[in-house]
What does this fold into?
Amino acid sequence: MLPIFGTKELDDLDESDLQDLKNKQIPENRFVEYKRDMYGGTDSQVEEMLADITAFANSQGGYLFIGIEEMSRDNPIPNNILGIDNAEVEAQRIRDRCEACVDEYIQGLKVKTVSLSNGKKVIIVCIPNSPKKPHMVTFKNKNRFYIRRDEGKSLMNVEEIRDVVLRVEEYMEKLEKFLEKRKRDVKEEIVEKFNSGCWMILSSCPIFVSEERIDVAKSGEIKELIINSPLEPTLNQKVNYTIKSGLPKITLHGLRSEKLNRYNRHGEGQYLEVWNEGYIEFGFSLEEFSKTKLTEKGYASDETTLRTYLIPNLITPDIVISFCYFVHDVIKIMRINEPIVFKLILLNCLSITLEYTGDEIVFWQQPEFIINPIKVYTPEKPSIIAKELMTKIFRAFGRLEPKYTDRSGRHRPLFDEDGNYKPD
It folds into this structure.
C-alpha cells in the first residue's frame, strides 16, 4: 500500500497531514479515494460505501478520505479539506456496516477521524492489503465482489475472483516455503559460525513476504533501532537481557548485527537481522545455561544428574518482549499494513527444560522445538504477543501459564491479565 504519510501512524495524523495531501497534489489513484460528503443511508448509498471499501481490500489496500473535496472528475486532486458533521457517529456506522455486510470481515480495517480547525472532522478509512481476499459485499440479498482499478472500482468477474484466490494461496505457499528454508539456513549457520549448541530463534514475517518494502541499508531509523534496540521500562531490569547485538552491517537482504561471547568457547552469542522484505530475525544462544545439572526431582549435586539446557524464565520474556517491541517499531517505519506472523524455534534442544520452579521437571525429547506461528493483524501491544509466545512454551512443559519463583519460593505469574510483564 502506498505510504502517503511516511512513517506516521494513523492515530497520530492531524489537519496538517491532510493539508499536505493538497499541497503535494496527491491524486486519486489505485490506493487513494476522496469523498466530499459522507455516504447516505439509502440502500444504494450503503452498497456504494461497502463496494468502495471491499474494492481496496480485494486489490492492494488503500485509503478512503471522507470530507475532502477533489478538484474535478478530470483532475482528482484535493481541493478543499472540508470535513463532515457527526464524524464519530458516521465512523462507527462504517465499522458496523463492514462487520455486518462483508464476508469475510476485513481484519486490520481501521476507521479514524481527524479534527479540523473549522470544528468538523475528516474520516479516514485505512484498508489493508488483505490476505483473506476476495471479500464479498452481502447486502439486501445481493452478493457481489468488487476490485479497485486506477481511481475507480468495478465488479469482479469469475476469472478475476479465481485469480485472486489463487494468488492468495500462492502467497501463503511462498510464506511457508520461505520460513522453512530460513530454518534450514539458520541451522547451517549456527553450526558454521557459532559451533552449534542450543539456540532460540525468534522471527516475524509479513504475509506478503516476497514484496520488498524499503532499502533497509539506507534507513537511518532502522539502523538506529538496531543499535538501540528497545527495552521497555516494564521489563525485569535486574536481568536486563535485550536484543542489542552490536553495530549493523550491510548484507544482501538488508542489515545484520551480531555479538559473540568473548571467547566463544561454547558457541555463545546472539544476532539480529532485518530484511528489505520486512522479515526480522533474532537468534540467542542458550549455551551459557547448559551447565546446570538436574534430576526429574530438581537440582542435585551427585554424578547421576543429567546435563541439560534451561529456558530461563526471567531472561526469556525479556528477550521475547524486547523483540516484539522492535518488530512493532520496524513495522511503523516500513508502513506494513498486513498480518505479521511471529514464530519461535529452539534448535538442538534435546533434553531442554524450563528453569526449575519446584514442580515436576519435564524434559523435551526432540532435537527441535517449534511453536505454531502466531498471526497478528495489528501488533499494537507487543507484550500481548510475548505473553502468547511464552504461554505456548510453558504449556509444552506442562505449565498452564508463564511463572517464575520469587525469592521467598512462591510461584508468581510473569504477566498480568492485560498482558503486562510484571515480575517482582
